[in-house]
Amino acid sequence: MAPRERREKQWYKLDNAGVLYSAIQKENYSAIYRFSAVMEERVDPEALQRAVDKTMPRFPGFAVHIKKGAFWYYFEPNPAPGPFVKRDISNPCQPVRFREDNGWLVRFYYYEHRISLEVFHALSDGAGALVFFRTLLAVYLREMGHAIPNGPGILDVEEPPHREELEDAYARYATVRSLRAGIGKKAFQNTGTPEPFYTLNVTMGFVPVDQLKARAKSYGVSITEYLTGALLKVILENQAREEPRHPKPVALAIPINLRPWFPSETLRNFILTVRPCIDPSLGEYTFPEILSQVHHYMRLHINRQEMQALLTGNVRFQTNRALQLIPIWLKNPVMALSYRLAGTRPYSGTYTNPGAFTVPEEMAPHIRRMEVILGQATNPRVHCASISYGNTMEITFAGTLQETDTEREFFRFLVREGIHVKVESNRSVQSELLF
C-alpha cells in the first residue's frame, strides 16, 4: 500500500451520481441510507471498533472527506482520527455536515444486537456499500473469535485495494450514443403533515420470503415487481381518497444496479433509475393489471442498450464544457433545481430492493436478520426499501410524515394476500399501523 504521505495527496473525482448528491446537500437534507445486521450475540463495541479500524484502509473510497473546489466537489483521503463507533440514536440517517464529525461520510452504530452502517450516497450505491458492510461484519466476527473466510463479497483486508474498485464506471461505459430521460409528467406527490426537524419515522415489516415468492409467482412476476405493484396500488388508493378532480400519475423511482449488464469491480455509484408508472386518468386498474404494467415496463426498459444510452447522456451532462466552467456556488442551485424537476417532481416515491444478502456458511449462524433504511426524502413523504436474508424479507418505510397511510395499507394488503407480516416501528404507537 502507498505510504500515508502519498495517499493524503491523492484526490478522487466524484462520479456522476456523487456530483448530484453533493450538489443537493443542504443543512437539513442529505442523501443517506443505512444497512443494519441484527446479530445473534450482543455487540461488543470495542471489537466492532477494531473491525472498523482494520476494514477502512481496504476501502479507500469510503475513507475520504469531501472538499469544495472552484467548480466541483472532490474527495480526498481523510487523515483525521476515526471514524468512531457510536451507540445508536433514535432518529437514524441524520444529515451529513461536511465539516462535522472530522469530515467522515460514513457512520457506524451499535445497539444491543444491532450493527449499523450509514453512508452518504455520494460515496457509493447500495451494492458497493454491501460489499463494505459484509467485509466489516466478517472482520468483526473474526475479532469475536470466529473463523470466517474471505470469499465472494468479502474482501481480504490484508491485501491492498484494487484500482478497479475506485473506477468511475459511468465514464467507462459512456459511448457516442446518448439518451437523457426527459422530465416526466408531475406525479402525485404522496405527501402529508411533516414532522418536526429531524424526526424520521421508521416502520419495518418482516415477511417470509417463501410466501412472498409464491404469491409473486402466482401472478407471473418477480418479487421486486410484486412489491412495486403493491406500493403503486396503495399510493393510487391514497390519491383516490382525496377525490382529485384531475388525478395525477403515480410513479416510483426504482434504482437499478448496472453491474450485471456492465461488468465492473467499482465500489462507487453505478446505478440508474427506472420509472414504472400508472396513470389513473386512463381508468381504474385492478391489481393484476398494475402488475402487468410493471412487469412489461421493467422487461422493456431494463436492457443494456437503453441503459448505456441513458448513462451516456448523464455523463455528457456532467462533462458539458459550459457547465464545467460555471463556479460551484452558481452550479449547485441549478443542479438542485434540476433535481427537483427531474428527480422529485415526476415521482410519488422511491422503492429499492438490493436483493438477498448472502454470506459464507461459516458466517450465517451469527446473523439473525438484515435491515435497510432510506433516509428522508427532499419533501415529506415515505421511501420504501427491502432486503432479504435467509427466509426473511425486511421491508422498511421511512420518512418525515406524521400520517401512516402508505405503510399501514401496504402491510394490510400483504396480509390480505395471505402473507404473514410482523411489524416493528420507532413510532410511539406501532400497533395501530397494521390493525
TrEMBL record:
SUPFAM superfamilies: CoA-dependent acyltransferases. This is Alcohol acetyltransferase. It comes from Pseudoflavonifractor gallinarum.
